Structures are given as structure tokens and as C-alpha cells.
Amino acid sequence: MAPPQRSPKLLLTSVCRPFGGPGEGDSVGAELFHAQVTRAQGPFSLRQVIRVWALDYLAENLRAPAVTLHYPSHAELVRELKRGDYTHVGINFVVATFHKVREMVPLIREHAPGAQIVLGGYGTVLPDDILGPWADAVCREEGVGFMRRLLGEAEGGAIRHPHAPIPSVQVLSHQLPSVVGHVTAGLGCPNGCDFCCTSHFFDRKYVRLLPHGRDVYEALMATRARAREDGMQMNGFILIDEDFFLHHRRAREFLDCVREGGEPLSLMGFGSVRGLSRFSGREIAQMGFDVVWNAFEGAGSGYRKQEGRSMPDLYRELQSVGCAQLTSMIIGFPYQDEETIRREFDQLMALEPAMTQCLIYFAFPGTPFHKQVIAEGRYRKEYREAPDLRRWDGFAMHFDHPRFERPEQVEALQRELYREDYRRLGPTPLRLARISLEGYQNLRNDEDPLLRARAERLRGDVRGTLPATRAAMLFGPTPEVRERARLLRSDIIRLTGTQSAAELAIEAATPAAYLASAAARRLGVFQQPGLLRTEHRTGSGAGSLHSRHAFRLQGGARTGVGRVLVEDGARALAGLAARLRRREAPPQPDLTAVTRRSGPMPRSLPVLATRPERPLFADAAE
């Protein structure tokens, strides 16, 4: 007689820490700002560990009991496998962390031999013959629907949005006691840029998770209400949508809801010039956007998303209402030589964005550019014969360039541009404060009560930056930056009032905090994320969803200073021993399919039939 079939129970996990090991790029990890944006700013860099939100969405929307692990160590993963009796283990990864998947799968097969391994995330653009040995199933689509089919659960119905906060940004080792909310309005992007994995992963279709503006607003209010129930402040939100303003009907509905609510929000979101141009700066401020991630790319790149208002006019208007920009630039386009890149970088710096991301144009599997590079035989020999996927991160030049003799020249130029951004414009916290202060000045007497309330909120944000201005006056990278810090501090006090005794005390401690942050980074301690473990429908883990547990993501004292120091020390000793022994790298699987073959995005495995009750896909914006 066949043994009874077990009821499904899921373990959903990110890849394991630590990050930044031998051969790994420092751009891939648990942080976005510090890894890819403020990376050259030393202790002024923004530190914020980001959840792998896909895990939270899956756990929230399936019926089977589930546990999520964000950034476990190998030991923590093994402990969970031993005690969990899991039928399925899902791993979310990107191409640059596939080597971590290969470390985790043997542990899963040893300690949970009956569990099926499901791979998901943007790393699944890798072809079947590479992923096949490491998985029983591969999800290359919207994950909730796929997992429901895989588990035999009922399909259809609205996607529920999990309460999945992250800690507020940490600067100079100072951690605000508030959390940041998160809502994903949709997946994918219809813009279809030739290099963009997120667009072509969904075949240039848009997966609409929140159809209407009121849905977006109510999801934000729901996660904030949950934080308040937990006794926590949620002062801001991240709204995930590749081009929120492009879907203008929904965005206008959202604007109406915010106006009706009458309370100023604080949002970070994403928007193209094409989408932003459909709204005035006042409307974007009324929605509550404090930071918009926008693409500069290259002046001659010619993407449709850049059509609309001139960027100088657009940026000036947004900054006048206290809305800052995180602006992305790409270098290595075929038309660019070094002179062109430097000229375009000067144009970007003239916009004075609060943050800058600079990535190298590279060919991600599944994109049109990947197909072109392979067809033209442009991959560098070392990548064609033995591709190192750890460098598939936007910080390595993989192919021959018509205007650079050596690809290393592009990589060196990228590093220089990050440093130059810091030298010219200074620390990001002060750049944000200057824009917020301008918004406060312009809106504090506005006829619109919503914008007046926004001005008062911006005033509070600016006051919190005063300690950082003192540190920048002492440790800024150039005399010009130090003078800008002094002027900013003077303007803040002039416009918002003199400092209290408590503010002066915090400011006096800031230089020491700067030095401590610099030392910790140099020594490699307290730089790794901590484990966040949540339980869903297990009957015993409701407390694991409390908002305060989000601070565990930041690691350090929140996960036990002694344990962290032991872990950091062991990692440092292992790295030193490896260098002394000069051991050869372990044999790698054959990955040449990535640089020798191209084709459309492979299908999920296994291929499961589906008849959704209502379509999630919308081919283009309204």
C-alpha cells in the first residue's frame, strides 16, 4: 500500500548570507542603496536591508502552511530544514547569486530529502540545462498563480498584499525607530528597453496586481494600520511599479484618494520621463512622492520612455515641491566613447539628483540585447568560454566594445563616476535635505491644505538631517562640499528654528558615529544582514509577523552582537586561510549556454495548464 500523501508545507527562502565573499561583486547583496547607489559615500552611505518581497507575497497568498527566511546563514537554513518537515523549498535568486543556489541545494537534499526544490526570481532566465540539475520546478512567471497550480490549490482571485515592512534608512550608524511600508502595484514593464530583464521576463507585458488607484491607496493604508496596531511608526512607503505614472488613469485615481484622505504621504516610487510628463509637479507632490527613481540612461540612447518634458525642466519643478530624484545612468552603449560618457555625466550632474546609479550596459539572458551580442559574437573570450555569473551584476563589461580597447577601461570609468558624483554633489542625506528644504519653503504657505501639511512633514525630515550636516562639515570629500554642508545647516536653522539641547547633543556625537561607521566598514564587522523568519498558517507563529521584527534585517545588535562578531570573525579567518592556501576554485558547472545560445524566455517547469478567472496581463498602459 502506498504511503499517505503529505499535505504541502512550504519553506520559502532567499539565498544565504554572507555576501561579498571571494569572487563576488560588492554590488549584489541584501541592500540596494549601499550596494548600487551610494556605494562611494563611505559612512554617509544609506544603509537599508531590503526584504525579498516575492517570498512574502507567496506566503500570504497560498493556503498551505509556509515559513519565510530572509538571508539565513547556512547553519540557520539547516536548522530550519531539520525541524520543518517541508514538502517544498522555494529559493528566490538572481543570476549573480546562482552560485549560492548551488551551495544551498545539497544542504536541502541532505536534510530535507523528500522536499521538492522550486527556483524562482530573475535568476530563472538561465536555460533549463543549467537550472535543471538544481531544481524540481522552475517558476518563470507571476509566482502566486504558478505555486497555486503546483500545489493543486484553487486559482484566481485577487492578490492579497502582505504586511512586509523594512527598517527605515540608517545613516552614520543611527537607526530611526520607524519602519517603511511596501506595496507592489504591478510587475513587469511595457517600455521594453533592450537590456531590461524585468521587462522581457514578462514579455513586455504588465502584470497588474492592483487594478485601481483606490486599491493602491487602501493597500498602503492597510499596512500602515497594521504597523500602528503593533505600536510602530510607519513614516513612509516604497511603491513598487516599474513606471507608476505611465498608467495615468490609475495614478489619477490614486491622486484623488490622497486628496480625499487629506493626509500627506511619503512615497518612493519609479517613473519615466514619459510617465512623469503627464502630471504637474504639484500633482506628484500631492500624491506624496518624496523620491522618484528615474532613468537618464544615456543622452543618445533613444528609448521611448525618455520622451516628454526636458529633464532639466522636469527636475526643477519636482525639486521645487520637495520631490527628489534617484537617477540611473548607463555607460557602455555602442555610441559612447570616454569623452561622450564624461559629457553625458556632466549633463546628469547639472540636474543635481539626490542619488545616482551608474551601471554598465550588459546583455542579460532573455533580452534583445543578449540575442544581439551572441549573434554578433561580441562576448569576451573569457566570458564566452567560462562565464562567471557572479559578475552578471551591471558592474562588469562582458563584451567587446567598438570604442574601448579594453573592457576594464569601462569598469574603471564606472568606479570613477561614482566617486565623482560624491565629490561634486556631496553626501546623499544632505542632497535630500536640500530638496526637502526647498519644498518646505515653497509649500508652507500654499493655498492647498494638503501641500501645507506636506511642507510641515518635510520640515520635520529636514530637522533630522542636522547631525549629518555637522559630520559633512568635518568629513566631506572636498572643501566645496564641506561649505555646502555649512550653508545647508545655516539655512535649516534660519528657516525652521534654532536647535534644542537634545538636537545639539545628538549633533555633538555625530563625528564619533562617523568614525565608528568607517571603522566597522573597514574591519568588515556588522556589514551583513540578519535573519528574518516569519510563519504563515502554522498555528504557532503569528508573533513572527510583528512589525518590530523588521529591524532584525539590519543585523548587528538586533540579532545578537556576540553571535554577529563570531560569524564575522569566522568569515574573515576563512577568507584569510583561503588566500594563504591559494586553493584552486572548485569545479564549476558548464555555463557556456549563457554566452553561446540565445532564445525566447523559457517556460516554467513543469508546464502547468491554467485557466485564470480574470486576466492579470495588460499589454500596455492606458
Report what the structure shows:
The protein is of the alpha/beta class. It has three domains: 10-29 and 51-159 and 528-596, Rossmann fold; 166-443, Alpha-Beta Horseshoe (pyruvate-formate lyase- activating enzyme); 449-523, no CATH class. The chain is 42% helix and 13% strand. The strands form four sheets. The protein has a seven-stranded mixed sheet with strand order 6-9-12-13-14-15-16. A six-stranded mixed sheet has the order 5-4-3-1-2-17, with helices on both faces. β4 (116-120), α5 and β5 (137-138) form a beta-alpha-beta unit. α3 packs parallel to α4 (98-111) and α19 packs across α21. 49% of the residues are buried. Residues 611-621 have low confidence and may be disordered.
Unreliably modeled segments? 611-621
Task: Give the CATH superfamily of the largest domain.
Answer: tm_1862 like domain
Shape: globular
- Give the averaged pLDDT, no decimals: 92
If you compute it from the alpha carbons, what radius of gyration comes out, rounded to the nearest whole angstrom? 24 Å
Strand residues, percent: 5-15%
CATH architecture of the largest domain: Alpha-Beta Horseshoe
Strand count, sense and closure of the main sheet? Answer: 7 strands, mixed
The secondary-structure class comes to alpha/beta
Counting DSSP E segments of at least 2 residues, the number of strands comes to 18
- How many domains, as an integer? 3
Distance between the termini: 57 Å
Helix content: 40-55%
CATH class of the largest domain: Alpha Beta
- With helices defined by DSSP (H or I, 4 residues minimum), what is the helix count? 23
**Spatial ordering of strands, largest sheet:** 6-9-12-13-14-15-16
> And the CATH topology of the largest domain?
pyruvate-formate lyase- activating enzyme
